[in-house]
Design brief:
This protein is an alpha/beta fold and about 120 residues long. It has a domain at about 5-60 and about 90-115: NAD(P)-binding Rossmann-like Domain (Rossmann fold), CATH 3.40.50. About 35% of the residues lie in helices and about 15% in strands. It contains five helices and four strands; from the N terminus they run E-H-E-H-E-H-H-H-E. Strands 1-2 form a two-stranded parallel ribbon.
């Protein structure tokens, strides 16, 4: 995939799903700008100061992150029952969707929301 000279702005890009997305974009050759709130150490690994904007949104479903994994077992059981695939998404799966949409080969895909949610919500 060709990245051209693209820069990706990743909101929450220093932990959880955002970190996986930042790392995947960096590995694919993008420059990455990530906001970091309280995680300046994580941001220092990937941030550049040049930012461009692309009109694409990612809508992840339940994902195997520290926040989701911290729920009570009985709540997790209900979550997994509600997802047709029967499992949580991995942060790297979300990141692969972002890398695909950010590539030059996807330049005609614009103004869309990619739902990566284990078929919980079909749009």
């Amino acid at each position: 995939m060709s990245t051209g000279s693209r820069v990706a702005l990743v909101i929450g890009g220093t932990s959880g799903i955002g970190a996986a997305i930042s790392e995947a974009l960096l590995a694919a050759g993008y420059r990455v700008a990530a906001n970091y709130g309280r995680n300046a150490e994580g941001a220092s690994r990937n941030v550049t100061v040049t930012v461009t904007v692309n009109a694409i949104a990612i809508a992840p479903g339940y994902t195997d992150t520290a926040m989701v994994s911290a729920v009570k077992p009985e709540v997790m059981e209900q979550i997994l029952k509600s997802v047709p695939t029967g499992r949580l998404a991995m942060p790297t799966e979300i990141a692969r969707g972002v890398v695909f949409l950010a590539a030059d080969e996807s330049c005609s895909i614009n103004g869309v929301t990619l739902s990566i949610n284990g078929a919980k919500y079909l749009t």
